[in-house]
């Protein structure tokens, strides 16, 4: 059995398509198909049900996935030993993060990672969604909950605060609420509830049972910009909103606390670029822990 064929199997299993896997691997679509054929021939069983819509693991393919990932982890560890501790750390690392943390916090600071390790190429994907580490949508994912399933390694980064904010101009025109009951008389800004990817992101229920958003935005940064422009009162990340001079915290006793977790796949923790990027993120958050409230 050829290791390169196993690597191709893993790429197809994670991408769900031969074409998508070939792009990630930098190989020709037909080459990926032939290598899969060779692996299936060597194992004597089909690993995928290949359909026009994509590739679905067969029962045998699903059973082969865990051993293949163990092989991947062993190969990564062996490569690290062969390279030696003093070898330059190089490679591409894709980081998936919620848009608030990814854009407002990580993006301005990741140049420090490439300064420390010039051989690392960073891909930051800051969007309001969850990333599948198992399917390799990202090498490192920042999540708002500790993953409960899968062969994943997670470390808590920080607890962060959210609170109610409004623009100074909005409060001058509409008044400042003195209690949660007053919110019903204000314009409220919130998330698009059916697009929230985690139950922990349903903040409004922790503030008021009858919260009715007049303006709904699926992005944390979009909500911040709308509130700053005077659209109404919204629940914003303190580490973003507190740096905006036009925003004022209202009803400060009503604060929400959440956590950020850094997650990588167990098979990737031996890869030097991923380990270096994970350590850099953790160190950077720790150095600026005070920002998060």
What does this structure look like?
The model has no long low-confidence stretch (mean pLDDT 90). The strands form 2 sheets. Strands 3, 4, 5, 6, 7, 8, 9, 10 and 11 form a 9-stranded mixed β-sheet that branches. The chain has 3 domains: 3-83, Orthogonal Bundle (Arc Repressor Mutant, subunit A), CATH 1.10.10.10; 90-156 and 259-292, Periplasmic binding protein-like II (D-Maltodextrin-Binding Protein, domain 2), CATH 3.40.190; 159-257, D-Maltodextrin-Binding Protein, domain 2 (3-Layer(aba) Sandwich), CATH 3.40.190. It has helices at residues 3-15, 18-25, 29-43, 59-83, 99-106, 111-116, 168-174, 204-207, 220-228, 238-241, 272-287; strands at 48-51, 54-57, 90-97, 119-126, 140-143, 152-167, 188-190, 215-216, 233-237, 247-250, 256-265. The chain has 293 residues and is of the alpha/beta class. Strand 1 and strand 2 form a beta hairpin. It contains 11 helices and 11 strands. Helix 1 packs across helix 3 (29-43) and helix 2 (18-25) packs across helix 3.
